[in-house]
């Protein structure tokens, strides 16, 4: 689960991670009132969407008067903001964050993410603040510092020293401030079961203080039960409608750009299925894991969600029966064809528990657009051929 910048900064404040003062607004009039409450003579109007690159897309603008605050808020609210993370369809801006101006002397990058290879969190930092970290990694990877922190020991002084030396911070007072900042951010990460925290840019002010000018946070969905306050921050309008609908039925769904719909049980098998489809010359239209509790209703819902995508020309059902029996899936497929208009070829490969019974069920059903496959390679090949024939 992701949250908005203003929500991330609310969490930061609980851990004394310095941020500029700001207030959320839903209308241009609220934006002006919030700017008055903050005081000063310069403000930043920030679009609030679950995506990075807002500034380059025109979603972050500087206002030097209250009239400008109103004008910019009016321009940004209701716009479809397109960034490198939203895709060409963009995202609708429904709220803006009005933030006080900051004295920016330098811009850095700082994040805490999970390094799955090292099996521990790492703190990533760079002197190239304000730029996409992907661009920095591609063009100047030597400018990215990575400090792994073993959760068994937590953040220690040597982690902080490695960080500040890598960033070239030589002033003793600034070193202490940066180490304190990084330690607090690591604590935020660990205590809230975060998957990712990113601050870009992290600014250094003229007085040598470090402030989170931006803030992005993502959380482990499986741990949200421990954090009802964070779960309450969920903004379902920012989430994909089909993915949200699928989750209500216990399905894990992610839309992709291909033309072969995939219905699989198990994330590993789903990834292998998509790879095999690619190897056979096709392109997967989605990731869909029906899990271990599939029935006619969940299979029907899976077909319904897959077929919402007009690009889908065939569906490959690849189930390995273990927890979920193959005959149950076969009956689910037959029932699903009665509940949903499955108008594209469906290639079915069922193996494992009760696979032979499942094959008999499908063969005796005599449904023209259901094609049996013997194994993964055979199924992927038939799905690619079926899609090409449409």
Mean pLDDT: 91
- Tell me the number of strands: 19
Count of discrete alpha- or pi-helical segments spanning 4 or more residues? 13
Oligomer: single chain
Largest sheet: 7 strands, antiparallel
Assigned CATH superfamily of the largest domain: ATP-grasp fold, B domain
In the residues, how many domains can be counted? 3
Output the structural class. alpha+beta
Task: State the distance separating the first and last CA atoms.
Answer: 37 Å
What would CATH call the class of the largest domain?
Answer: Alpha Beta
Please estimate the helix content.
25-40%
What is the CA-atom radius of gyration, in angstroms?
25 Å
Strand content: 15-25%
Task: Predict the CATH topology of the largest domain.
Answer: D-amino Acid Aminotransferase, Chain A, domain 1
Report the uncertain regions.
none
Shape assignment: elongated
Q: What would CATH call the architecture of the largest domain?
A: 2-Layer Sandwich
Please characterize this protein's 3D structure.
The chain is α+β, with helices and mostly antiparallel strands. The protein folds into three domains: 1-19 and 103-238, D-amino Acid Aminotransferase, Chain A, domain 1, CATH 3.30.470.20; 21-101, 2-Layer Sandwich (Dna Ligase, domain 1), CATH 3.30.1490; 241-388, Succinyl-CoA synthetase domains (Rossmann fold), CATH 3.40.50.261. Helix content is 37%, strand content 24%. Helix 2 (28-38) packs across helix 3 (66-76), helix 5 (157-167) crosses helix 6 (172-191) and helix 10 crosses helix 11 (326-339). The two termini are 37 Å apart. The model has no long low-confidence stretch (mean pLDDT 91).
């Amino acid at each position: 689960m992701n949250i908005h910048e203003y929500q991330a900064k609310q969490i930061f404040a609980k851990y004394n991670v310095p941020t500029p003062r700001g207030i959320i607004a839903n209308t241009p009039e609220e934006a002006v009132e919030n700017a008055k409450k903050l005081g000063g003579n310069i403000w930043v109007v920030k679009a609030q969407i679950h995506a990075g690159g807002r500034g380059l897309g025109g979603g972050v603008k500087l206002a030097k008067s209250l009239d400008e605050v109103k004008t910019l808020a009016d321009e940004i609210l209701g716009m479809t903001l397109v960034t490198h993370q939203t895709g060409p369809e963009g995202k609708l801006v429904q709220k803006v964050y009005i933030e006080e101006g900051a004295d920016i002397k330098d811009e850095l990058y700082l994040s805490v993410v999970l390094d799955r290879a090292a099996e521990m969190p790492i703190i990533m930092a760079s002197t190239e603040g304000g730029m996409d970290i992907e661009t920095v990694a591609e063009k100047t990877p030597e400018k990215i510092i990575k400090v792994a922190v073993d959760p068994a020991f937590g953040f220690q002084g040597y982690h902080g020293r490695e960080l500040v030396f890598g960033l070239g911070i030589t002033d003793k007072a600034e070193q202490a401030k940066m180490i304190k900042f990084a330690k607090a951010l690591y604590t935020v990460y660990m205590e809230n079961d975060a998957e990712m925290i990113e601050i870009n840019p992290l600014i250094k002010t003229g007085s040598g203080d470090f402030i989170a000018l931006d803030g992005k946070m993502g959380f482990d969905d499986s741990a949200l039960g421990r954090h009802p306050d964070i779960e309450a921050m969920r903004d379902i309008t920012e989430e994909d409608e089909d993915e949200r609908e699928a989750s209500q039925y216990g399905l894990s769904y992610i839309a992709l750009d291909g033309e072969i719909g995939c219905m699989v049980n198990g994330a590993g098998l789903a990834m292998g299925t998509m790879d095999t489809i690619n190897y056979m010359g096709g392109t997967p239209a989605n990731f869909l894991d029906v899990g271990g509790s599939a029935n006619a209703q969940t299979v029907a819902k899976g077909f319904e969600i897959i077929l919402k995508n007009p690009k889908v020309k065939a569906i490959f059902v690849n189930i390995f029966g273990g927890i979920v029996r193959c005959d149950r899936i076969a009956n689910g497929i037959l029932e699903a064809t009665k509940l949903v208009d499955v108008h594209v070829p469906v290639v079915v490969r069922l193996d494992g528990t009760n696979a032979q019974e499942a094959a008999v069920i499908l063969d005796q059903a005599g449904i023209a657009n259901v094609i049996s496959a013997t194994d993964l390679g055979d199924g992927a090949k038939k799905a690619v051929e079926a899609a090409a024939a449409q």
